[in-house]
Every structure is written in structure tokens, then in C-alpha cells.
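Lab notebook, bench 4. Continuing the backlog of folding jobs that were queued last week. Each job is logged with the same field layout so the records can be merged later without manual cleanup. Today's entry covers Allophanate hydrolase subunit 2, a 336-residue chain. Filled in by technician R.K.

JOB TYPE: sequence-to-structure
TARGET: Allophanate hydrolase subunit 2
LENGTH: 336
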Amino acid sequence: MIKVLKPGLLSSIQDLGRTGYQKFGIIASGAMDPFSHRIANLLAGNEENDPSLEITMMGPALTFEEDTLISICGGDLSPSINGKPIRTWRSVFVKKGSELKFGGCQKGCRAYLAAAGGFAVPEVMNSKSTYLRAGLGGYKGRALKSGDVLETGKPSLQSLKMTEYLSKQLLDKTFVENDWGIASKLIPETAGNPEIRITRGRQFDLFSRESREQLFNHAFEVTAQSDRMGYRLKGPALALSEHAEQISEAVNFGSIQVPPDGNPIVLLADRQTTGGYPKIGQVAAVDLPLLAQAKPGDALRFAEISNEQAQQLLIKREMKLKELKQGIFLKTRGGN
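JOB STATUS: finished
OUTPUT FIELD FOLLOWS
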């Protein structure tokens, strides 16, 4: 069990989303940075889709009511246990009674805390993700509050092996980190002002030549009017060559819509299922983690790639993730 002392700015239970229900108008939700969520789970010995705690910008203060194997991946929110900094992107065994705190954002803005066994919350429509606006899923359909107690599920055999290995090194310490972690070359860059690779949206050719050029030649600032539904951007106003009514159609995680004011909106995890604004671009799936780690005030730059390039980049990343998963398994089986 993990008790919430302070909830942080926005901390909610998320998995990889509520798939298969968008045709009924049900929001997918899920982790904003699916890659970090997946790695955190693997390092805790979980399945990739097990629920983790998504922590946004200002993290919570948590007390462990029992010995727990955890991992924290994603942005650097300065995590510490009993005042001692801990490293991210690796397995950490935490002793009962220890307190985990997060500081401010050093890099990125979202971190993912996975605990062995995942968080034991009810499944709603095949997902444990929280959709905050509808009060659906997760922990009572809402963000965490002070006094909440998070139960963890039954740990896997892999989690138990990790726990056994690390617990032997604990001695008189309150936590112990694994002596190996994820290679830095596999960790997405979470520094501010990222370059985001995109493909052309369905209505790209309907925009003026000037707007199409501005999309790739100018930076767009993430505004404070941004949330899990979408990032509202500020930059050169983008416009269609001539006004045309658009028929609402399906939208994706990373769709870049342009409303009448010309300021793009990048749709995110809690996006609506359809939209009627013209779409000038689509963020490549491989760069969604970079997008999710951008915070208000950061400047985004877009770079065009083809659909084929986007597919190959994603395939390459998934192959690396598969190798990483196998590597973690072999390390665990070997007792270290």
C-alpha cells in the first residue's frame, strides 16, 4: 500500500488507454507519455499495460506502507526518498515507512511511477485509466488527494525475483537502486523546446502556401491553456487558402487541428473522438513522448517526414523496446 500525503499538481492512474470504444464516443485517455509508462512497468516487473501513476509538473509526497519495488521513468521531477535523491529509469526497492517526494521540473514535465503488481483499481471498459472530466476509471475517477491509499496488485514472478535480489542489499538503508538501468541512448530527450516530427494532415493542402511554410519555419509556444486534452499553441496564425466547411471526422493522438483563430491545437490523450477543425499535421507516434514532456512556455518546432519514415521510426523503436524487455528479463533471471 502507498499512502498519499500530498497529491501534487495532478497525479492520476493511467495505463495505455481505453481502446476499442472511440466509435461509441468514449475517450481513450491513457498515459500522455506511453513510452515512459511502458519502461517504468517493465522495470517493476509488470506488464506494459499495467496502471502506473502519472505525475505532472509538481509531484506528490507518498509513504510506503509496506516494502515495495518501484521504478520512475519520464521527466526529471527530482524524486527523493527520505531526503536522498534517487535515480530514474531503473528498479528501486523501497523499505516500509519510507517517504517518496518529488521536487520541481528539471527536465520534462511528466513522470511515471510504477509499483510491482501495478495499482489495484477497478477496470472500466477494459482499462484502468482515469478520464478526469467524466470521473471515469482510475482511482475513484479522479486525481489523487491527500489521504488516499493506493493498493497494489499481486506481483509477478519477475517482480519477486527483482525484490529478492535488491532486498538482500538493503541492509540498514531505506532504499536500494539496481546497479543497472536503461541506457541513455534509449531514453527520449526531455529538454525544453523539442523538434517534433510530423506527417501531413488530411487537410494540409487546403492551407495557404504561407501557412504551410510557417508551420515548419517558425516555433510555436505551448500556452498555459493546455491540458491532457490538447496543447494550445501560440505562433504565426495559420489559415486556409479559402474558407471551407469541414465535416467532422476521427482524430488521433497527435492530430494538429487549426481552429478559426489560426493557433494550432495538438490533440493528446484525453482528446475528443472526432473533430471538425482542419488538420494540418499529425505528430509521428515515435515523437509523442517528446510532445508529452513539453510544458507551458516551451517552444515546439515541427519537421516534416513521410508516412513511410514515421512507420519505420516506430518499428525501429518497438524493436529496441522488445530487445530491452528481453534484456530486463535475462538480467532478472540471472539474479541481478
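OBSERVATION: Residues 307-333 form the longest helix (27 residues).
SIGNED: R.K.
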